């Protein structure tokens, strides 16, 4: 999974948020769901937080991850009938967790996701 190695740390953090939503059965994911999940886990990081977790940054990261083949694009409809971009993992959640568990910054977040899946 070379594309994960080339993703920057913010993109990896966004991908972990997608993994968390996926293992919770909440897919396909929308940018606002990912933003809320990511913001809830900023305290789990063992590094200086990113400049912020804004929805536009999340959208850009989701697109980059999709272009890298880590996510697939889906389309859902809102209550008003408008199509909204949504994303699903293109790889197994465990692959992402295994690759990022050794990353000093993300270890606690990976442990949190694993603990949630064990419940």
In the CATH hierarchy, what is the superfamily? Winged helix-like DNA-binding domain superfamily/Winged helix DNA-binding domain
CATH classification class:
Mainly Alpha
At the fold tier of CATH, the topology name is Arc Repressor Mutant, subunit A
Helix content: 40-55%
Sheet with most strands: 2 strands, antiparallel
Question: Which CATH architecture would you pick?
Answer: Orthogonal Bundle
Nearest-integer average pLDDT: 85
Q: Report the uncertain regions.
A: none
**Class per helix and strand makeup:** mainly alpha
Spell the H/E element sequence. HHHHEEHH
Strand order of the largest sheet: 1-2
| End-to-end C-alpha gap | 28 Å
InterPro entries: WH-like_DNA-bd_sf (IPR036388)
Protein name: PadR family transcriptional regulator
């Amino acid at each position: 999974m070379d594309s994960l190695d080339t993703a920057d740390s913010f993109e990896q953090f966004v991908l972990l948020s997608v993994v968390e939503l996926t293992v919770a059965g909440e897919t396909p994911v929308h940018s606002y769901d990912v933003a809320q999940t990511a913001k809830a886990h900023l305290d789990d990081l063992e590094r200086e937080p990113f400049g912020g977790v804004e929805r536009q940054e999340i959208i850009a990261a989701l697109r980059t991850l999709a272009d890298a083949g880590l996510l697939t694009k889906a389309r859902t409809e809102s209550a008003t009938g408008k199509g909204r971009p949504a994303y699903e993992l293109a790889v197994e959640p465990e692959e992402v967790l295994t690759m990022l568990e050794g990353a000093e910054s993300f270890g606690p977040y990976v442990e949190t996701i694993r603990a949630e899946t064990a419940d």
